[in-house]
Each structure stands twice: as structure tokens, then as C-alpha cells.
Amino acid sequence: MRKIWPLALLFLLGLAQAVGLGERIPDFALLDPAGKPITRDTMKKPAVIVFWASWCPVCKAEFPGLQKVAEETKVPFYVISREPKDTKEVVLTYMKAYPRFIPLLASAKDKPHEVAARFKVLGQPWTFVVDQGARVVAFFAGRAGREALLDALLLAGVELP
């Protein structure tokens, strides 16, 4: 029991640090795989933003379920690697298995890990669901469950099939 308290405290502090419910997400300028600039204002919304890393076992376990939700709902899932060592080639190769995801890559203005820092994420995966106004309606530190994610999408104004 004593070993759990420090982890629980760290988890709660992380939640307190992240971009909060009802807040607009921070602005950013990244590129989609075609080289098109994506910003807070130009991204399609409602949307899901997932911070991940190529080496993360939880991300690997979570992505097939997220891909299925993305296919069913047609909501854009923007994925941003918070690992500075994840090159464009690594990200694009990894994302071939997840065609509904939109990987966001470094631009002249921003690097993905810098955007993660702006969101104040402390680990991966961290998932944010945003509404039409780019306000956070839900976020998940760690694995996002299917039902909770679908509920969050309803809160964001998505009409589910």
C-alpha cells in the first residue's frame, strides 16, 4: 500500500498540471504527412488529440481500439509523438497500421515534443477530446477506455452512429 501512494500522488499532480476541462487547447503549428500546416484553429473539430511515443507499450496496446473508434465515428484523431527521438520516418512507418490517425510532425515553428510540453502532459498516452471551440471536454492520462471515449465524444458534440 505504501508504494501506491507516491504513484497516486504523482498521477493526481499530473492531472492538475495538464490543460484542464473547459480550457482551450494551446496553440501550435505542426504539419500533417502531406506537409499541410495544422494549428489549433485549422484542425477539424470536434477532435481527439493523442500524445504518444513509438516505444510506449501502453500506446501499442491502446491504438487498435482507438483506430476502431476513429473508423466508427469519423472523428479526426491527431497523434503527436512526445518523444524527441521519434523522427518523421519512425512516425510515418508506425502510423501505416492506423490509417484513420493523422500524425502531426515538426514544422519550422514547432516540434511535437514542444507541443506536448505546452499541453503539460507528463507521460503517454495522454488523450484530449476537444469540441468545436477547441475546448477540452475530457482527457485521459493513460489508456482511454472505449465507452469513456465515446461518452467524451458525445460531450464534444459528435453524433455517434
From TrEMBL:
Listed GO MF terms: isomerase activity
UniProt keyword list: Isomerase
Superkingdom of the organism of origin: Bacteria
InterPro entries in the record: AhpC/TSA, Thioredoxin-like_sf, Thioredoxin_domain, Thioredoxin_ResA/DsbE_sf
Gene3D superfamilies linked: Glutaredoxin
Keyword Glycosyltransferase: no
PROSITE patterns per the UniProt record, alphabetical: THIOREDOXIN_2 (PS51352)
Pfam families: AhpC-TSA (PF00578)
Keyword Isomerase: yes
Domain Thioredoxin residues, every copy: 19-158
PANTHER family per UniProt: PROTEIN DIPZ, THIOL:DISULFIDE INTERCHANGE PROTEIN DSBE
Name of protein: Thio-disulfide isomerase/thioredoxin
